[in-house]
Amino acid sequence: MNWFLRGIRRGILTEKEFPQVQWPSELHRSKEGEVKCPTDALKEDRWDPNRCIFCRACEPILSPTGRSVQAQVKRSEPSFRRSFYLYPIDVGTCGGCNLEFRLIASPQHDMTRFGIFLTNTPRHADALVVMGVMTPKMEEVLRRAYDAMPEPKLVILLGVCAVSGGILGMPPDIRGDVVIPGCPPTPESILRALVEAKSGE
Amino acid sequence: MRIIGDLGSHCLTSEGLVEGPCKYSHPTIGEGGYGSFSFLYGPSAGGLLESVAFDILTYGESIEDVRALSYKTRHIKVGGLPLRDVLFKVERINVPFAASHTIAFLTAVENALGVSPPEEVVESRIAQLELERIRNNLLVIQRLAEAASFLVPTYRLLYYVEEVNRAISRSCGHRYFLGANYLGESRCQGLHLPRIDVEELRDLLSNRIFIDRLQGNGVVKEDWAIGPAARAAGFSYDARLEVPELKYRDHGFKIVTESKGDAFSRMLVRLEEIEVSLKILEGVEVKPRRFELPLREGRGIGRVESPSGDLAYMVQVEQGSIKELHLLPPSRINILLFLRSMPENIFTDFPFNWESFGIWISEAEVSIS
């Protein structure tokens, strides 16, 4: 059958609510006890999602709530309300963030319904999506991509490696306007953060 | 005996380790004549899923030679670390192949300690490897459709990739199996099968324009090829039938082969393997299970058939810590095959040939010390 007709026959696949994911999701303390966290994400009884790699070493003292991990939107840009073009840059990923970021375009999530698009050049980008730990040869590539972008612009740090270095290295030396924790963050948490960053809502 | 690839200072073959690096036939290096020039593609460019650059020698349309340039090499330190901490790092070498990496690493550790995991753990590992294969094969075919701007199938395939991720999340807690396997433990509970209409995917084969981009593109005939690239060239190579730890023979597994060795044959193999994997999964039961790992010393090798071919670890364990660790990722071999198969093709063939190998730079360029 013609692909176009089949596409129409399948109906609308885009979702308003997404299924719950356990790992990664917000963690809460469900038992007393000592936790040996490999990334020091648990200090003085406070869980830090920006350091957590969701390795489950803290289980069952900490357990997942199923609530999507909250991103921190420090600055939003209302001029991107109608269209928000993103340029992803991988400075040293494991491939996980790349794939989850790609899946915000899947029919279930459909980023275009929120006016979010990808661009092939930083010259046309409103936001730079930085993923991975900093690797030496990507430092200059990252700086040149950032410098090539027009103003106003946002920097989005996607995944724990870009936010804090995770378990594998050091984070890129760039200030993030939007910080999306997770290892890797789910398409739902990425999409929620992007919508907030573009409209402040 | 077949060559699998370099593992530390040894060459891993289907019969075991042999001394020294593997002996590959030397490729003919293309030399540009009058009017040729070098074209740099990457490292950060639209169309590439990861950061990688290619130095392409060309006269304008035909490709004479290609070199891959490393940009995102991650240096991962594991020496002297406890097994638990090394496991967390191994899981994150290439997250799209996290089950393959973790299971190969844990098998190497168990072999080093002289332990055989219980039946339930073996079944759970088979289920994880096959779910991972289905997702990755769908992703490779999606990337091929996207390269052809064949948009409805591109998004149908992305839909299926997301459905597989959700099935994995329901079965094992995490969409990429992180934390699903632990030392002496398998945590997946119940198997949720993704609903995939394989007949719909086969309709891709009725589009002449799409097929033309793949047929005759990137022909591989090397007998040291691995995974879908080898099977597409007619070699019946598959770690699932060669490695005794995972009992694939009990599940009636049969190898899928093609004969032409081009990008189209590699896609056909991946398409058929989705169906084979779904059949294997129908006969698998997944339950969590723990078992004892003794505190011993030893050296062991673990190998699995990842979605892109043989993936192996060699470890030396002492006092519950890693003394030595060597990795053979499939993408390293597949990059060599891609670079050899590219000359004599033209620029527009490039993305189709690249995507057809299912290469992940994250595992190919990782440096472990």
UniProtKB/TrEMBL annotation, chain A:
Keyword Phosphoprotein: no
UniProt xrefs under InterPro entries: 4Fe4S_Fe-S-bd, Complex_I_20kDa-like, NADH_UbQ_OxRdtase-like_20kDa
Cofactors demanded by this protein: [4Fe-4S] cluster
SUPFAM superfamilies in alphabetical order: HydA/Nqo6-like (SSF56770)
Iron-sulfur found in the keyword field: yes
Pfam entry (one): Oxidored_q6
PROSITE patterns per the UniProt record, alphabetical: 4FE4S_FER_2
Domain of life of the organism encoding this protein: Archaea
Gene Ontology MF annotations: 4 iron, 4 sulfur cluster binding; metal ion binding
Keyword list, A-Z: 4Fe-4S, Iron, Iron-sulfur, Metal-binding
Ranges of residues in domain 4Fe-4S ferredoxin-type: 43-74
Family per record: Belongs to the complex I 20 kDa subunit family.
Protein name listed in UniProt: Ni,Fe-hydrogenase III small subunit
Organism: Metallosphaera yellowstonensis MK1
Automatic annotation (TrEMBL), chain B:
InterPro entries hit by this protein: ComplexI_49kDa-like, NADH_Q_OxRdtase_suD, NiFe-Hase_large
Secretion signal, residue range per the UniProt entry: none
Pfam families attached to this UniProt entry: Complex1_49kDa
Membrane-spanning parts: none
Superkingdom: Archaea
GO molecular function annotations of the record: NAD binding; oxidoreductase activity, acting on NAD(P)H; quinone binding
Domain NADH-quinone oxidoreductase subunit D: 200-282
UniProt keyword list: Oxidoreductase
PANTHER family from the UniProt entry: FORMATE HYDROGENLYASE SUBUNIT 5-RELATED, HYDROGENASE-4 COMPONENT G
Name of the protein in its database record: Ni,Fe-hydrogenase III large subunit
UniProt source species: Metallosphaera yellowstonensis MK1
